[in-house]
Amino acid sequence: MNADLQTIDGRPALRFERYLGHPVERVWRAVTEPAEVRRWMPAAADWTLTPGAEFELGGHQGQITELDPPHVIGWTFGNDRFRFTLQPKGDGCALEFTHVFNDAAPAAQTAAGWECYLDRLDAQLAGQDLSEEQAHQPVGERHERYAARFGLDPAPGRAFIAGLGFRGLSLSGGPTLRLERRYDQPADRVWRALTEPDELSRWFPGELEISHSDPPHVLTGTWQGDGTLRFELRPDGGGCVLTLTHAFTDRDQAALTGAGWDRCFARLDAVVAGQTMSYDDSLAAWPQVHERLAASWGIDPGIGRAVFAEHTFGDG
Q1: Under 8 Å between Cβ of 43 and 58
Q2: At which of 87, 106, 135 does a domain end?
Q3: Considering just the CA atoms, what is the radius of gyration of the chain in Å?
Q4: Residue 76 burial (CB < 10 Å; 0-12/13-18/19+)?
Q5: Entry pTM
Q6: How does DSSP classify residue 167?
Q7: Within a domain: residue 142?
Q8: Number of domains in the chain
Q9: Per-residue model confidence as pLDDT tens digits over 106-145
Q10: Same structural domain, 167 and 304
């Protein structure tokens, strides 16, 4: 967690600080040269690095408002303002990034998203390839933390994150569902969420019948008698990666089951972040996720729609 929500000129602003173990000149190229920016951001403007230069991206206009190479660049884009400052620090540099906008309501999801993109910047500078999908695996957990920290309603951000299709599950022959999440918390913390009854009840739908346990690495079992569940945890930096595989029998049930797991993991994101998402709140995005999975996997959506239509809300 490295973002603060502040007020600048009467408007909400996010401010990030991050140490990067690379010279200022190298980081400057990564945050200003379009070919470099495209490697860690989904798009980059082909701007000219001169004060006052205007640029266009995605139908919106922007302008460079401040430039002091290789230390400061500021620009506007639409109604928002952005600014990078770089200063030497030890063998690397201290990066400060500020984003000023109008509405504080989506600040938590915006902060979580920027943190994921700054992770991609860090990886790029280290000569590593961190895909957008991999970078956004912790976005749910981060959003929950930021929403609590900023005192914001998490509902809009939860709905937005549910729509990020690239965070979804994969379906292979068998059939087998697979879902992977990277968390900022260590494996021991996530293991508790998988095994301690009080924590498990806050995100898992029903009873997990455990057949094998190797703390804090592997947990296998069954759920409602439908196939085999396997949870695997491995360390990843200061956090961990959790992989779920669910082998079951009826492929026609894959979109229904997959949407359920997507919503369970949304609740798990909240638990790991020390927050709570109710069962009913998690289901708000279920139809959206289900339709996306059914279309992606070529499955008749009528099966899942019928089950959801019979669901009774108010269960938690």
Answers
A1: yes
A2: 135
A3: 22
A4: middle
A5: 0.93
A6: G
A7: no
A8: 2
A9: 999 999 999 999 999 999 999 999 999 999 999 999 999 9
A10: yes
- Residue 148 inside a domain? The answer is no
- Angstrom distance (rounded) from CA 115 to CA 136: 9
Is pLDDT above 90 for 42?
Answer: no
Same domain, 69 and 120: yes
* Both structure tokens of 78: 């639409």
| Domain span including residue 232 | 155-309
Residues 66-74: contacts with CB under 8 Å, at least 24 apart: 69/28, 69/32, 70/24, 70/25, 70/27, 70/28, 71/24, 71/28, 73/31, 73/32, 73/49
Q: Give 250-278 pLDDT, tens digit per residue.
A: 999 999 999 999 999 999 999 999 999 99
**CA dist., res. 52 & res. 86, Å (int):** 20
The answer to whether the beta carbons of residues 2 and 145 sit under 8 Å apart is no
CATH number of domain containing 104: 3.30.530.20
Helix (H, G, I), strand (E, B) or coil at 188: helix
Is 206 a domain residue? yes
Shared-domain flag, residues 8 and 51: yes
Rounded distance, CA 64 to CA 50, Å?
7
Same domain, 160 and 305: yes
Task: Please give the Cα distance from 265 to 159 (Å, whole number).
Answer: 14
Whole-angstrom CA distances from 182 to 71, 228, 288 are: 32, 22, 23
In a domain, 147, yes or no: no
